[in-house]
Design goal:
globular, Nucleoside Triphosphate Pyrophosphohydrolase, alpha+beta, three-stranded antiparallel β-sheet, single chain, eight-stranded mixed β-sheet, 18% helix
């Protein structure tokens, strides 16, 4: 059983913004530089690895694809989940989901789920590495699989799961001046998280929770 969140995370006050931290330099955000980084990763410490548990379900292995679309600058492909889903409904998320027994590895799970959710065919995707496992409060044990995506890759979102697909510049997300800290008292404890709100031509995209935590780990991976 999963307890629904009873507050609007976008309305929770900001407790701090990380303007004091350096952004990742543009040279490190190029496809070739990212490939090299994953081949020879630095010694580094992830900042966000888990959330306070709010679900009684048995932990489930899962993967998400962190798709970096190779336009003039790298763009992170994200989805807005539909409102009727039982888990993380309406939230901004990476395409992904739980592992199937037939999946060969974590990358296979991420690629299969991305194809099912947004119609992204694996032929248009180059997996370059993984980030540390992140355990959500809803008991998903998630491996983020980072990949480069061809800019002309056709997408066909699954309307049952995905309300919208959009892109955010990787440079925006790798600049901690855009990382906001929040805290709220919920279920007898203080819950804290990051958000990275981004306004595109259509609306403000409120990136928060697990998605923001994984992106923050990506920031640390590239910075350290």
């Amino acid at each position: 059983m999963t307890t629904p969140i009873s507050f609007d995370p976008a309305q929770v006050p900001v407790t701090g913004v990380d303007t004091h931290l350096p952004k990742v330099s543009g040279e490190l955000l190029a496809p070739a530089a990212l490939r090299r980084r994953f081949v020879a990763p630095p010694v580094w410490t992830p900042e966000y690895l888990s959330e306070p548990k709010f679900s009684q379900r048995t932990p489930v292995a899962a993967s998400v694809l962190v798709p970096l679309v190779m336009r003039d600058q790298l763009m992170v492909l994200l989805t807005q989940r539909t409102a009727h889903l039982s888990s993380h409904s309406g939230q901004v998320a990476f395409p992904g989901g739980k592992a199937d027994p037939e999946d060969a590895d974590v990358a296979a799970t991420a690629l299969r789920e991305a194809q099912e959710e947004i119609g992204l065919h694996p032929d248009h995707v180059e997996v370059i590495g993984t980030l540390p496992i992140y355990t959500t409060g809803s008991a998903y044990i998630v491996t983020p699989v980072v990949a480069l995506v061809q800019p002309d890759a056709p997408l066909v979102p699954n309307a049952d799961e995905v309300a919208d697909v959009f892109e955010v510049p990787l440079a925006f997300l790798m600049d901690p001046a855009n990382h906001r800290h929040h805290a709220v008292d919920w279920q007898g404890a203080t819950r804290q998280w990051l958000s990275m709100p981004y306004r595109d031509a259509n609306r403000e995209r409120f990136i928060w929770g697990a998605t923001a935590g994984m992106l923050r780990n990506f920031y640390r991976f590239l910075l350290d």
